[in-house]
Amino acid sequence: MPSVPTAPTPRFTIGELARRTGLPVKTIRFYSDEGLLPPTGRTHAGYRLYDTQAMARLELVKTLRELGLGLPEVERALGGQTTVAALAAVHVDAIEEQIRRLKLRRSVLRAVAKRGSELEEVKLMNRLASMSDEERRRLIDEFWDEMIEGLNVNQEFYDRMRSAKPELPDDPTAEQLEAWIEFAELVGDPDFRALIRRLSETHSAARDAGESMAPADQPDYTALFSRANEALASGLAPDSPEGRAIADELFNASAGERDPDDMLYRREVLTRFGQGGDPRAERYWQLLGIINGWPPIPTQAPAVQWLTEAMRAAIS
Known about the structure:
Blueprint (H helix, E strand, L loop, with lengths): L13 H8 L3 H9 L7 E2 L5 E2 L2 H15 L4 H8 L5 H32 L3 H11 L3 H16 L6 H9 L10 H15 L1 H19 L12 H14 L6 H15 L7 H14 L2 H14 L8 H15 L1
Antiparallel strand pairs: 1-2
């Protein structure tokens, strides 16, 4: 029985491959020159020819390149030195990082447009926005290390202070980014650092004098602020009998072993309360709240002012 002749294997020139794959002739020739697409044969005139397997290989190269793989990685995958799955996993991580950086860049530009920032501020904003979470955490740790260095502090209290770290999302809002920039500027401000250092020194001196300064031993300022706000809303004056009574409660709650009626002690408490009521200290926590997406932290500045005046009235 005569044998049936087999159909000739299709052969394609670079031009035909280009028409079928949509790749430029120049690109296919480059891949071939680099060894990614060896020719299957040549014409009598020396032009390269490729079979269907070569076309399938070219389609794979095209796909891998579109996914962002470099030529060395494509070559290793085609040569069986690694798997496409392993390369994909690596590139997923790289793309996620690129997306994170692009989102941050977008947020910086939004904030720049909103604030009408000048060149120097733009540079600062971009530098601060590009900080990693680890760099932001280290900034806070270094801040609090300096604030308590060499002092006799209640470690539980200061551990709570430093435990709250700014966690800027990968895609922060313009408000969050602006809050982070303001926060970073605040903790780097010499006047603010001097304020917190003075508070820490006052805290340390109180412990040296025998006060525990533990959070559990401090007055319930939340309740006091609530009562001060109620007094403000009802129009009560700080030097009214009710105001003086609230001030006396604060003095009594802070006294420990000391005489709550002693004027020297009362002046010390008033000074300490005034330092702690500085609006910059409150702003520190409000900015952290915005950055971290906490519920809004309302200002207690009016209540602090009312309580301060009530304490002065109770001393006079």
